[in-house]
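From the shared-data thread, chain only:
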Amino acid sequence: MAIDMLAPEDSLPFRAPQARPHQLLQLRYVEGMTVQEVARELGVSERQAYRDLRRGEESVSAILWTKWSKPEQPRGVRAMRLSSVESEVARLEPKRARVDLESLIRQAIKSVDRLAAGRGIQIEFDPPAISHSIAVDPVLSVQLLTRVISHAVQRTVGTKVSLSTVIGAQDVAIELQYKGAAATSNGSASDRVLTGLADRLGWSVSHLDLPSNEHSIRLKISLHGPTILIIDDNQGLVELLDRYLTGHDCKVLAATDGREGLALALNQPPQAVILDVMMPDIDGWEVLQRLRTHPDTADLPVIICSVFDDPELAYSLGASLFVPKPIRRVAILDALRELGIV
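Structure, as tokens:
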């Protein structure tokens, strides 16, 4: 079986990142678990589970193609896989910067203006009442907005496409409305690019069919980056990790002992926890087990950072990833990327 050919070495811990594609395929397609159940079993976010599942599916496809295709085909197949929509999107690495929301939208509109004019369609934009900046990747954001506006222009049977913004306390919504063909995705490569870009940026895209053949596409953008809770009794290390996360628009919460960390995890839910093991009163192993047994934090990604180089124990207790001390900036950022946090 192709899935078995992806099986990791016996010495690799069950929840190790290198083993996840195989474990996901096995649990999803052999044991029949849902993606949500698999994510919970492996201690990763649902988004990360989908990413690793796609990686595993691509690997299985390559194995099956190599086995059943003609000898002269693999080189072309490999090139096709490498240039596939998923591969192209996966290579993108968002780089956040503070940009003006109105300028971002107007730049995307400018790219579509000629297409709209050629079809006799006017793009109407109601800008926000006051200037508002958001932390996003400017290049990828404009590409995504351009694609969505182009999508609406090409599907409308009316004479205009309307854009508006709604600024809330936690997020910003950019909404497009038009009359015409339904906005729902048809599974084409361009729609997969849209979905992939939104996923990489951390945006949500929703389609709504309204009365009188009106349709709406809404892009929702969080105003705040991910919250990361650091539980470590070394205040100097907390400050170091805070500096490491500069430029990634993360909100950092810090706790210097296990009890405080558990309280913060429940009262101010983070997107990830970086957890030390050697702490007074309640050590990291106990904190990890309490997080895993509480329904509100059972699926919370937890990165164990410890001088005790024992990743197998960490994974057995439910850790999502293990990073040994001394901590390097690249190691902690790689771990957060692996979990889909930054």
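The chain has 13 helices and twelve strands.
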